[in-house]
Amino acid sequence: MASARREGAAASRALRAGAVIAGVAVFLVLFPVAFGSAFAAAGGETSSLSEADETCLACHAFEGMEKTLANGEALSLHVRSEAFGESVHVWMGCAGCHGDVDLETHPVERNFDSAHAYRAIASQVCSQCHSDESLKDGPAHHARVSGAGGPACAECHDAHDVGKMAEWKANVEETAYCLTCHGQALGAPRGDGGLHALSLDEAALRNSVHLDHACADCHAGFSKEAHEARTFASPRERSIARAEVCRQCHGDKYEQYAESIHATLLEDGNLAAPVCTDCHGSHAVGPKATYETIAGVPCKKCHENIFEAYLGSMHGQARSKPGHIAAPICADCHRAHEVGVASTGTRLKDACLACHEGATVSHEAWLPNTALHLEVVSCPACHAPKARRRIDLGLYDAVARMPATEQEGLPRFDDRVRAADAEGDGLDAMELWNLVRDINREGTAAELSLRGRMEVRTGVEAHQLSAKTEAVRDCHTCHSDSADPFQSVTISIVRPDGRPAHYEADKEVLSSPVSVGSVSGFYAVGGTRIKLLDILFLLAVLGGVAVPVGHITMRRLLRKDR
Amino acid sequence: MTRLYLNPLPVRIWHWINATGFVALIVTGVQIRYVGLIGLMSFETAVDLHNWIGFVVIGNYFIWLLFYLSTDKVKAYHPDLNPRKYFRETFRQILYYGAGIFKGAPNPHHPNPYNKFNPLQRMMYQIVMLLIVPLQFVTGLLLWDVKRFAGAVELLGGVRIVDTMHVLIFIFFAFFIFVHVYLGTLGHTATAHFKAMFTGYEDMEEEPGS
User: Fold this and answer.
1) Alpha carbon separation from A165 to A87, A105, A152, A175, A320 (Å, rounded)
2) Which of A195, A313, A458, B197 is deepest in the core (most CB within 10 A)?
């Protein structure tokens, strides 16, 4: 109340001149009839107001009465007398809330940082009648009464024309009802002392594709009558739970999402994995095209480095041109909802070939074994010429005819690799051979072998795609044992979540005789040739020359003796 | 001097196409395998030539096969089915190449159109023509289009195994070519066998070897 008193005085700063105060006093004491006339002229004629209230309204009923606050904001001091006369608080009169105002000293010089700050202070008086305990019984105040984060009472209920809630609720449209509070700065206290934002941008909501939906369509359990108190372990869990509602209408998209790596990560306990609202927003949900623009694509929020690489690529540069929507953006290759693991499977290659329909034919015109190249060489390995490449030897199930997936219940591949690579310096050929042998010995009916694939080393590099004319077309780039791709070798297995786990291997695994068995599924002519065969070839040539030379020599020597 | 018609025209055509093809395949094969070390031609050209020549040699193989399957000259590979005699003659031929030839001993084998090869040639040529060459054709064909023949590649144990087989046979032929040419000089003159493979006629006088 003390603060409210101070505010009342400050609000009258405009009237602080002594002459004005004297004038008011004379006006109030000597000309009561004139007061009535003036009040009527201000439009506030009512019989429910007390004489004291009318005294206050003698000034505050004037429209345009205001004071300028510290932040430059204008705080209205105007009270609509007619509305106040009809409010549920009229019986209390002005003094009921502004009991600290002393007409002898009013107005007192005071100032406030902002109108919001003023209302927060002024609203404290409400708790004299509406205690936290009593408010907890109502549906909408459980968060507010916890002491922080909510708007002041006056922000929602107004200050002087507080009506009967039942009547107001009956007449107000539901969304407007919700926005009464949630359209303002509103937050729920978090365990860490911060606030979980509960406010929304009304303008964004009005512009969203969900414009025609009522709040309760998504926020089931919430209405004018119900506003249950919910608790979550963290704000993130609140967001994840909230996104579940989207499936009510977008079941098909939800099913696609459920198959995605994002959903898998979430199921595995990774709370950072995105849910619907992380990409589409909660209330400012735009049309599909919103998320297919350079500015609006949501993927960059998490994959910033990759998106930067994309922007520099020929695809990104083309897409950045106004109106050029033919060039692919994230979802065109990775899909919007059923986002898969990029580094396994054929979906990304399929995505390339879906747009570049003639690519297979054009490659066949110059590239021997085109189908094989398209299978074992990732598109960026040639079309991102500045990227570093590597050979990934993926564990392959020959029985199931698909990449081997780590089986739950069996010893983890990670443990096997660590056991095989005792020195931790990467698997050498013998260690790799032992690893593959042991897996097949202990495993199921699957016949596991290693199949190689040339790929770029990072996801960022996979997006550094250049123009077709800059793509690698020189066979020497790869078909040489000193070529860049053969200097880095990894072993991989598909984890249960669909993502590959990579382990370093010595590059000699590509050229060791031991690898004929363990790496039977990969061979690049010239690049991974077995050194022992080179020695054999040299011996064969030398032997081919030595046999005739030796035989001729023997013949001549012995002929002399004859 | 007796002149025998040992090399019929289809055999001579097959032989020289095959010989030229083998040399070309070895040269292009070396270029493909050692692209960073040898610069006889571009990798692309070497691959293209290797593929085309490979198909020519495969087709040419059937000239040899059909000729021998359709004529009685096939007896040259099996003049008689007497194992004891075969092993005895083989031993004598080994003794000749290993010792007798150095002392001016006569070649124990006396060819005729139906007994053209000495026992060692008979054995070696059958191994080469019925096992090694077809195996090289098959592995070469599989490597020519690994995806098209993926099932067969898997059946053989994977592309690395197929390639290793192809390279091992290539290494064998690299050796074989030298020795084969040298053995061709062991007629009664150094060029007698070469001339016979052009004209078809072999002079039968003073044959130190074949």
Assistant:
1) 11, 36, 17, 16, 52
2) A313
Instruction: Count how many domains chain B has.
Output: 1
**Residue A390 near residue A458, CB atoms below 8 Å:** no
A368, B48: Cβ pair inside 8 Å?
yes
pLDDT (tens digit per residue) in B168-182: 999 999 999 999 999
pLDDT value of position A1: 34
- Asked whether this complex has an ipTM greater than 0.85, the answer is yes
Question: What is the distance between the alpha carbons of residues A245 and A562, in angstroms, rounded to a whole number?
Answer: 105
Residue A412: phi and psi, rounded to 5, are -65, 140
Low-confidence ranges of chain B (pLDDT < 50): 207-210
pLDDT tens digits, one per residue of A14-46: 334 333 343 444 333 333 433 343 444 444 444
* Residue B84's CATH number: 1.20.950.20
Indicate the residue of B32, B47, B174 with minimum beta-carbon distance to A540: B174
Percent of chain A with pLDDT over 70: 86
A396 touches B: beta carbon within 8 Å: no
In chain B, residues with a C-beta closer than 8 Å to the C-beta of A368 are 44, 47-48, 51
**Which has the closest alpha carbon to A543: B167, B178, B169, B25?**
B178
Mutate to test the interface with A, among B160, B161, B163, B177 (most CBs of A within 10 A): B160
Band of the pLDDT at A427, cuts 50, 70, 90? very high
Q: How far is residue A536's CA from residue A525's CA, in Å, rounded to a whole number?
A: 17
B173 assigned to some structural domain: yes
**Which residues, at least 6 apart from A65, have a Cβ–Cβ distance to it below 8 Å?**
A14, A59, A76, A77, A78
The C-alpha atoms of residue A377 and residue B149 are separated, in whole angstroms, by 18
Q: Name the minimum distance, in Å, from the CA of B70 to any CA of chain A.
A: 35
Give the range of the structural domain holding residue B170, as residue numbers without chain letter: 3-203
For residue A522, the distance in angstroms to the closest alpha carbon of chain B comes to 6
Q: Nearest Cβ partner of A372 from B43, B147, B161?
A: B147
Cβ-Cβ contacts under 8 Å, A548 against chain B: 178-179, 181-182
Beta-bridged to residue A427, according to DSSP, are A505
Q: From CA B100, how far away is CA B86, in angstroms rounded? A: 19
Q: If you measure CA to CA, which chain B residue comes closest to A512? A: B160
Q: Would residue B209 count as lying in a domain?
A: no
- pLDDT for A144 equals 56
Sign for the CA dihedral angle at B12, B13, B18, B19 comes to positive
- Partners of A522 on chain B (C-beta within 8 Å) are 159-160
| CA distances for B64 relative to B20, B169, B173, angstroms | 15, 20, 18
Q: Residue B85 domain-assigned?
A: yes
Residues of B in contact with A366 (CB under 8 A): 44
Question: Coil, helix or strand for B99?
Answer: coil
Contacts of A520 in chain B (CB under 8 A): 157-161
Report the C-alpha gap between A529 and A533 in whole angstroms.
Answer: 8
Beta carbons of B171 and A537 less than 8 Å apart: yes
Closest CA to A272 of A246, A297, A240, A300: A240
Residue in A515, A523, A559 closest to B159 by CB: A523
Residue A286: pLDDT over 60: yes
Q: Could you tell me the pLDDT band of residue A163, with boundaries at 50, 70 and 90?
A: confident
Mean pLDDT score, A476-501: 89
Restricting to B residues 96-155, those with a Cβ less than 8 Å away from any Cβ of A are 101-104, 144-148, 154
Distances (CA, A) of A319 to A315, A325, A333: 6, 6, 14
Cα A382 from chain centroid? 32
Q: Which residue of A has its CA nearest to B100?
A: A555
Q: Confirm whether B208 is domain-assigned.
A: no
Q: Collect all residues of chain B within an 8 Å Cβ-Cβ radius of residue A559.
A: 102, 104
